[in-house]
Amino acid sequence: MGWRGWMDRVWGIRTGEADVRRSPKARAALHDAAAGARRLKDWHPTDADISSIATASGDTLVRRARDLVLANPYAANAKEEFSAALVGTGIRPASTLADEALQAHVMQLWSTWCEVAEEQGSLSLYGVMDLVAGALFEAGEVFIRLRPRRPDDRLPVPLQLQVLESEYLDRSYSAPVGAVRRIRAGIEFGALGERLAYHFWRNHPGDKIGWLGTQERVRVPAETVLHVFDVRRPSQLRGLPMLTPGMVRMRIFDSYDDAELERKRTAALVAGFVTKSTEGGFWTNETEATDDEGLPEATARWSPGTIVELLPDESIEFSAPVDVGATYETFQYRNLLAIAAAIGIPYANLTGDVRQANYSSLRAALVQFRRRVDRLQTKVMVHQFCRPIWARFIDAAILSGALTASAAQAEELKAKVLWIPPKWEWVDPLKDRQAEQLAVDMRVKARSQVIIQEGGDPEQVDQQIAADQARAERLGIAAAEAPAAVGAEARPDGSDPDAAPDGPSDPAREPAPGPAPEPTPKRGRQTRVR
Question: What is the pTM of this model?
Fold first, then answer.
């Protein structure tokens, strides 16, 4: 070590530690954040990796999340809002193949197969998408098995999908397999960390009456399984429920709100109290008289609109239940706001409360929410679900003879496909439509992009427009006049004042001649002649 290295080590001149040592404020901030002071003495974060956390606590989190979705109205609504935003009526493919005949045949075959894609026949492919979105919200993950079928099953393409819940793969199952392979959280990995297989339970571990006998695991090759989950940290193996950050607050808030509701209900049941005097200052042991239904007569006398005649030794005191107080609404709002932030769903969507919202606040919240949904659509649904199913569909269609294509065409079919998510409804349709038209006119946005954002296939839309125009011409239906350009001030007759005349003027439209108007005197500085 030379003299410069010795000086750097002693004084910390060339390292970032020197800046911290010379800054008391930075040193205090680091000390407070890392020290076990009084305020932070109960904060003991774990250093376990995300896979260890998911393995140790994942089952409990999934059970609690499912319970909240079943019993908590806000959690149930949040799941529906998330599923509707993520997949809606389905993320649909649009082939961009140059061969139009082959493209049309593939899309027709896909449309037919989608109706029978699910193995039980209860859902179409887009129904399976909705099921996957709900499972992502509840459990944080879901498994899809790609099941080949026989020719005698009479399917358009011999392929179907089996949806498996998170519980089918045992998170606690970890073991070495041979010299280099290992099983962790139910997933078998190779020497390079690649996924080789999934060890599923043969039956759902929570099914208590659907099967009899000993439960066993089944090894399923990884190339026939889709593991759909949101990877949030490096080396993450299993998913976690989206409710996890707000789970505790949602549970406690629901318990408090339920207790408050029960307190008000109980208080409302008691209208008043009847007190009786006793002879000699002692209470009597006489049994109170009851009515035909076994209720005390004092209770039986209470009914709406009843005038009660008290006995000489009775007096009445009316109940005055305590109100929830003026802070109840504020308390609810703040907690629900925190829950909405933890889940990642706007407050208005979570609660349905739009009393404090306006156009700007709703738009800002929806824009941010749509960014999150767009991320999940591209990162999770398209990459982990749509693309693998499309590729397997093309292979199965070619192998079965339902589709005739060469190896090069098959690879081109798999690559040249555009996935179109469901359209977003506009907050203000007129303003948004004008903004889209302006962007297209300024050549900063393609017309096909607008169609895709509305959930349509540009080629299909153009074909439908051409078909509508041809049918209108055949039936003699006059086409509607095009609206004026955005921002232009149209004349009362609908014409553009800035447009140049393209023909001789119509004398009938010219103003009638008349006396020439007198010149208007100019205003401004005038020079007086002396």
Answer: 0.74
